[in-house]
Amino acid sequence: MERPSLEFNLPDTHEEGKLYVVDSLNNLNKLNVCPAESQRSLDEEENTGGTGESMAGSNTRNQCLFFTFILTLIVSLALVSFVIFLIFQTRNEVDQISSRLLSEKKNIEELKKLNSIILKHLNQSRIKE
Question: CA–CA distance from 104 to each of 96, 100, 107, 112, 127 (Å)?
């Protein structure tokens, strides 16, 4: 009795499953990256069976990726500009605080001198009495 072997059918089914998963992931990725208009080009590509008309879908995808790249660059530039603005603001604040500290230091030194003069004067007046 010969039993039919399932080994011949399983790898084909397994490979088909892998291809289906990869194709589904690719479609999901295309949907996430590109807007609804590119979905129409994907549908057209599937309907044409990948013939010469698929170049239009490819161009739409390339344009979508290009605009996504440009948008990413603009957002990055805006964030970098904001960080540079914050750095300058912080530097200005630190400069103001340091100038205040220097002026306060001068005031404290003057008060110490006045204090020492007053103490000397009080000590001299006590000695005279």
Answer: 12, 6, 5, 12, 34
Whether 65 contacts 33, CB under 8 Å: yes
- Supply 67's token pair: 């605009």
Please list the ranges in the chain whose pLDDT falls under 50: 1-12, 50, 53
**Tens-digit pLDDT profile for residues 40-77:** 555 555 555 545 545 666 888 888 899 999 999 999 99
Tokens representing 12? 């084909």
Q: How many CB atoms lie under 10 A from the CB of residue 56?
A: 13
Q: Please count the residues of the chain.
A: 129
Residue 38: name the closest of 3, 17, 15, 63 by CA: 63
